Amino acid sequence: MRMRSRQEFARVREEGRSYPGRFFVLGVLEDEDLGEGIRFGVILTRKVGKAHERNRVRRRLKGLLSDFGGQIVPGHWLVFVGRRPSANCSFAQLRHDWVRLGRKAGILSSDPAAPEVNPL
User: Fold this and answer.
1) Are 42 and 77 in contact (CB under 8 A)?
2) Cα–Cα separations (whole angstroms), residue 32 to 25, 29, 36, 105
3) 1-25, pLDDT tens digit by residue?
4) pTM to 2 decimals?
5) Phi, psi (deg, nearest 5) at residue 27
6) Could you tell me the sign of the dihedral formed by the alpha carbons of 91, 1, 21, 97, in that order?
7) Contact 80, 43 (CB under 8 A)
8) Distances in Å between the alpha carbon of 50 and those of 37, 44, 47, 93?
9) What is the spatial distance between Cα 28 and Cα 18, in angstroms, rounded to a whole number?
């Protein structure tokens, strides 16, 4: 489920932890009240690029969530804050950054059937 209100994003920033990556910063907040679901939001400023570039990054991040949806530990709020290089990176680079930060944050399960990611 997507986050839309300013208060939800602020809550993740104030109460959660952030994990900086090369292409985005991942904000994570654990919430037992969420049950079996996750909530996510994407923040992309004009520093990232023009509207079509920001939309491409947004679509790629949503694609990563759908690819790894079964491996994300439920009961978390996730916020992706895009950085400038994210507009010019490949999907594989973005995926590598996501896997690294997801494992560092402890929100990706170590499923043996999980796709391995080649470091770039």
Assistant:
1) no
2) 23, 10, 9, 16
3) 788 899 999 999 999 999 999 999 9
4) 0.85
5) -100, 130
6) negative
7) yes
8) 32, 10, 8, 20
9) 6
Per-residue pLDDT, 110: 65
Whole-number Cα distances in Å, 15 to 9, 12, 29, 31, 46:
10, 5, 7, 10, 26
- Residue 18 identity: S
Total length of the chain? 120
What distance in Å separates the CA atoms of residue 54 and residue 14, rounded to the nearest whole number?
25
- Assigned token pair, 66: 């759908």
**H or E stretch including 11?**
helix 6-15
pLDDT exceeds 90 at position 31: no
Report yes or no: 28 and 9 within 8 Å, Cβ to Cβ.
no
Which DSSP symbol is given to 80? Answer: E
Angle subtended by helix axes 91-105 and 51-67, to nearest 10: 50
